[in-house]
Structure formats: C-alpha cells, structure tokens
Amino acid sequence: MSAEATNPASPAPTTPGAHRRKSRPRIDLRRLGRAALLGPATRDRLPDAIGHVAEAHRAHHPDADLEPLRRAYLLAETSHRGQMRKSGEPYITHPLAVTLILAELGAETTTLTASLLHDTVEDTDVTLEQVGQEFGEEVRYLVDGVTKLEKVDYGAAAEPETFRKMLVATGNDVRVMSIKLADRLHNMRTLGVMRPEKQVRIAKVTRDVLIPLAERLGVQALKTELEDLVFAILHPEEYEHTRELIVENAAHGDDPLAGMAEQVRTVLREADIQAEVLIRPRHFVSVHRISRKRGRLRGADFGRLLVLVNEDADCYGVLGELHTCMTPVVSEFKDFIAVPKFNLYQSLHTAIAREDGEIAEVLIRTHQMHQVAEAGVIALGNPYAPASDDPSDGERADPTRPGWLSRLLTWQEAAPDTDTFWSTLREDLAQDREITVFRPDGAALGLPEGASCVDAAYAQYGEDAHACIGARVNGRLATLGTVLKDGDTVQLLMGQDPASEPSREWLDHAHTPAARIAIQRRLAAHPAPGEPSGGASAPVAARHDAEGAQDGATARTAASGTAVRPSAPPARPTGDAPGARAANAVVDLPGASVRLAGCCTPVPPDEVTGFAVRGGAVTVHRVECAGVARMKSAGRAEIGVRWGDTADCRVTLVVESFGRPHLLADLTEAIAVEGVAIVSATVEPPSQQRVRHTYTLQLPDAAHLPALMRAMRNVPGVYDVSRAQHAAAATR
Question: Where is region (Disordered) located (predicted)?
C-alpha cells in the first residue's frame, strides 16, 4: 500500500491548500519517528507518538475510549519495527499519519484502530485472526477490506481489478474507502522522491478514480487536497501560475472579503441571530477554475464567506437578512438543505454584491452540516448496526450508502470483463453532477445528470426494467429516451409480460452503466431471428399483445350487441361530422339546423361557438378548437351558441394504451358499467407496443363525461384518454 510512497526531497507538491488549513498542521515525520523508536509506553499512558491522534480524536469524541488506540499502536509499532520507508523514516510513521488525517476528520475509534493496523497483515507477520482476537470482528473486517485492495500491484493492467475489489469492499463498509483515501492522501503528500514517471502515473489514477470517489463519499477535505496535489504534478506550469495569483492577492493587504464579512456579522448581530462568519479561501484548483471562467480575478474571487449557525431554521433566517439588508445576486441562490446533494452535502448558497462591484459568494450551514460537508461519511461515525433486533444477525444496515454506490455495485457484478468495468467506472465517476427525480409516491431516485427514462427504469427496477413500456414525466406521456431534469416526477409504465425484451434503440438512450450493461446482456442472451446479437424488438411484442386484446374483445363485446371493428384503421372525420347529433344545442340563427363539429366533438358544459356553413346549417365547435382560430382569421363571423335542456350527447374519445391481452374487452366493459352506449369503436394497428382506440359514445348525461374518462383511465394498460381533436376540413 505505502511501500512505494516516500518522503519528498522537496516540499513543493505538499504546499497546495496549506493556506486554508490552519487547523491541520503537517506531521513532523522525524519527530514521530523518534517517538516511535522510544519503544512502548507504560500501560497507564499513551505512547508519545500517538499524542496528536488522541488529541484530534478527543476533539470530536470527548468520551472516546483511547485504550484500543494504545494497543493498536503498540502492535503496529512492534510489527513494523525495523521496516523503513525509502526516505529513511520508520515505517510506523505512515499508519500514524493516515490515522491522524482520519482523526482530524472525526472518524470514530474503530476506524482509527483499523487505520493504525491497516498495513500489518500485508507487510508483517500479524494475521487477521490475531487482529480479530485482539480488537474484535469489526476491526478485523476493516483491516481485511483494506488489505484486499493491495493484493494487486498498481500496474497498468492490474489497476482495473484493484479498483473492482475496492468498489466491492467499499460497498460493504464505506469506512474501508475512508482509510484508503487517507492512505492515498499521505502517499501523495510524500510523493516527491519518486521517479517523475511514477509520480505522474499515481497522480492520474488518483485524479480519475480516487478523487471522484472522495467527492461521492462527501469527504471534501480529502478531495480538495488531493486535487491540489495532483494539479501540482500533472500541470506544474498552471499550478505555479495559480500559486503566484494567490500570493499576489495576499500581498495586497486589502481583502474585500474581510470588509464584507464584517458587514454580514453586523447584519446578523442586529437581527439577533447567533452565527460565526468565516472567510474560506479557495484551494488551488478552485482558483484555477475561477480564473479560467472569469478571466481577471478580483479580491473576493479568492475565497467565499462561510456562515455557521446552530439550527436549520437559522440558515433561512440568515438568508432572509442578507437578501433584505444587502444586495443579493439572486441567480446564485441554491438550496441544498431542502434537496441535499447525492453525497450528503447540505448548505444554502447565495451571493452578495458591494457598490464597487465586488461579489462575495456565501455558504450558509449549521455546524453539523459543516462537519458533514468536510468529512462526508466519516463524520457520521459508525452507521453500521444489525438489521434486526437479533444480535446474532450479522447482516449490515447501511443508511449512508449513497445511490451512486448502490448503482456501481450492481453494474460491476454484471460487467462482463475487467476492461468493460474499468471504462464504465471511469465514465461513471466522471459524471460529477447528480439529479434527483421523484416517483409518484414521493420516493426520491438519484441519477447522474443526463439520465433518461430508460436509466430511471433500470435504477428502480433492475433487470425487471426490460418490461418497461412507457413513462410519464411530470404527468405527461414521454418517450423512454426523454432526458430527465432535476426535480422531475417520473412514473414508469410497466408491461405484464415477464419475458419482455428491451429494444436495441434503448442503448442510444441509456446513460448509466447499469442500464447499458443490463440491456446488452439481455439482447446478447436472447437474439432476435436474423440478428446475431440482438433482442426481440418492441413492435413485435406490441403486435402480439394487441392481437390478444382484439381477440378477447370480439368475444366479450358481441354479447352486448355492440359493433366493434378492431383491426381496421379508423376513418378520421374531417370538418363537420355528418352523423353528429345536436339535439341539445341552441344557436342564434332562426331556422338553422345544428351539427356538432367532428373535429372537437363538443359536449355540455364545454364553452362553444358556431359558424354558418352551406345549406343553412351551423356547426358547433369548442372555443379552443384549432378550427375556430382558422375560421376567425379567415374573417368568418361567429354565431352565438348555448346548450339547451337536453342532457344526452354524443362524444368521441381517443384512448392511448399499451397492448396486452383482453385490453379492449376490459375497456368496453368499463364503458358499459358507466351506462354509456358505444356507437362505434376502432383500433389502429399497434406501433411500438402502443395501441390507439377511438370510441364514439352516446352519453345519457353530458355531465357524466369526466367520470367516464376516469373509469377508462383506470383500466390497466391505459395511459391516456382524451377528447378527439381531428383536423378541420376546408371551409365550405
């Protein structure tokens, strides 16, 4: 794990971020080395070498029992005694440094104990059985998880398999990854004496895999320092330019953020809101990104204001005061408290402006939110407990496992080979933004930005998503290729056939590895006739379902005496429907006959209007009918129309559905139960598993139409019922 990491001859790569972490001093490896060589301490006190660890640990956990740390250090120091790093320092300084990093972030005692021992099983004669006997099963589990990540060298060919193991270990306990990240941070801090080509290789792997994992675990303190260290190695010229910008800005002395911070303190003090207002300098990579985005930087661009309060409600109180008493930049507002980021991050983001144009970004959060923002899952302590009340039940419940991790674990098991795993892992981790969509029951579903309904289906249903036949997004019918936006509500419409096959077209819409791999596996396992590696197409499944629906409908509707023409495409009426009845419409044109327009089939209580046509008749349209707009633009005079006392009416409804056996029969039965007569019914040939039905219905009471449409929508497989909207004919 750390045999290839050594102390730098020059501290240059360790300087990024040092200007912003006054509370995290660099470890003096020589002093720790001397303390380690002094030998074990007496049983009644801690060894001097872990004094900093104990101090940092007690700062977060005042009542922590330090005895396990004392015993773990003694075992690690004894086991590693005589082993040296390439720099000449005692090897024990490495696990000490890793453990101090975790202690500063607030890791609980079990994690720190495992961290002190994380190299013993790999590099010494200590066995996992000994670790378990001395420190318990949980520490043994963590040490084993970290050790498994190091069984393969970091060669170009071995790297993918190493990280596959890392992913599996992380999925079982995120504390394994916490130790790994702290280990990589210390190795990156001490990378200076390695050969340049080896520094570059390690930095690239850190950039491509470990930094995105740190981001997803919410461990921003590790992530930002790793970014700066990688930046210094892979882009030394740009790093040096950024360092000069930071130094030059600091030399000016007049920091606009200081004045704005004092203004904020005054505003909050007068509002009687207890808050701590801090200036939070940007790290090197952040400054570099801002400079590329904005060009010339101003003083306030080198940092942000951080406001820490005690309660969630105080966050919104601070926001209200700042927006009321200062000049807000409203476009910069984001609420990550109401909708936390996928990595547990919560804060309010806003910005305020001075009269001279300086703009300060402001982060508002509670002290607890700040701890989680810095340390992510590490700050949550030990989240693992038996899933049941039975203490013998060893199954783990993991409330901190984010959705992205569950997705990665799912598709890594299905990845057919290491190369596929590696390429999809890097692609997935490169998607550094996640959206949250909601199911109709209010449950949230986390997806990467750019995900489609296909991705949502596989994220929610796994392999069962092969049977997905449609979706509604925010209540409207949408194609499975529709790209989802943050906050969308997605209802996935599932078919009834468990043997359904995905369409090959779905691969064009699949954005997540889980969806792509699942579709590819299914298509490869069930090739369609004539396709060497394809699956059955959606239209084929639709055809069979529609045929079954039609066959069932013919037999069941014949008993009611209703004529059904299930297979012929409907003859769409154009213009005025000659057979339309208008017994309940009264027009302001004496002696004129009245016809209801077939293009919009108006019924009471629709708002209607009329137009005179040849033969002395008046056609009645709904006012929102497209034909009305065309006739008015052509200069046609409207004729007043109102509904008479007669309640019965005729209406044409269009039903959109997914094909399944007996669907048409179920629909006609639902119509009959509502006491409505079917004048005619047609079914178009199915397309893409979707079937369109057109019904002309005679209602005894027009007011019953909404209830009828609801009853038809409730038939399984039906996703929409609407009034007919046919194209109007040319004016006669």
Answer: 1-27, 526-580
What's the pLDDT score for residue 595?
80
Candidate list 77, 89, 108, 123, residue with the active-site label: 123
Q: What residues does CATH 3.10.20.30 cover in the chain?
A: 403-536
pLDDT > 80? residue 166: no
Average pLDDT over residues 168-174: 65
**Dihedral pair phi/psi, residue 553, rounded to 5°:** -70, -40
Residue 122 is among the residues annotated as catalytic for this protein = yes
3-state secondary structure of 83: coil
**Residue 542 has what pLDDT?**
32
Whether 367 and 310 have beta carbons less than 8 Å apart is answered as yes
CATH 1.10.3210.10 in the chain is located at 12-234
Please say if the pLDDT value at position 167 is more than 90: no
Assess contact for 384 and 136: CB atoms under 8 A: no
Query: In one letter, which amino acid is 492?
Result: L
Cis status, amide bond into 605, omega within 30 of 0: yes
Which residue ranges does the chain devote to CATH 3.30.460.10? 253-377
CA atoms within 13 A on the CB side of 229: 28
The first and second tokens of residue 668, run together, are: 């006609």
Q: 451 φ, ψ to 5°?
A: -70, 150
Q: Is the pLDDT of residue 402 over 80?
A: no
DSSP count for the chain of H helices, then E strands: 27, 23
Task: Specify whether the CB–CB gap between 365 and 96 falls below 8 A.
Answer: no
Q: Are 178 and 142 in contact (CB under 8 A)?
A: no
Q: Which CATH number fits domain 12-234: 2.30.42.10, 1.10.3210.10, 2.60.40.1930, 3.20.20.370?
A: 1.10.3210.10
Q: Strand 348-353 relative to strand 385-386: parallel, antiparallel, unpaired?
A: unpaired
pLDDT, the chain, mean? 77
Q: Which residues of 109-127 are buried (b: 16+ CB within 10 A; e: fewer)?
A: bbbbbbbbbbbbbbbbebe
To the query of whether residue 123 is one of the catalytic residues in this protein, the response is yes
Q: Of the listed 4, 48, 122, 358, which one is catalytic?
A: 122
Q: Where in the chain is the domain with CATH 3.30.70.1150?
A: 585-723
- On the question of pLDDT at 565 being above 60, the answer is no
Question: How far apart are the C-alpha atoms of 26 and 104, rounded to whole Å?
Answer: 12
CATH for 253-377 (3.30.460.10, 3.40.50.80, 3.20.20.220, 3.40.50.920):
3.30.460.10
CATH (residue range 585-723): 3.30.70.1150
Which of 355 and 308 is assigned the larger pLDDT?
Answer: 308
CATH T-level assignment (fold) for domain 403-536: Ubiquitin-like (UB roll) (3.10.20)
Helix ranges restricted to H, 533-658 = 538-558, 626-633
Calculate Rg over the CA atoms of the chain: 34
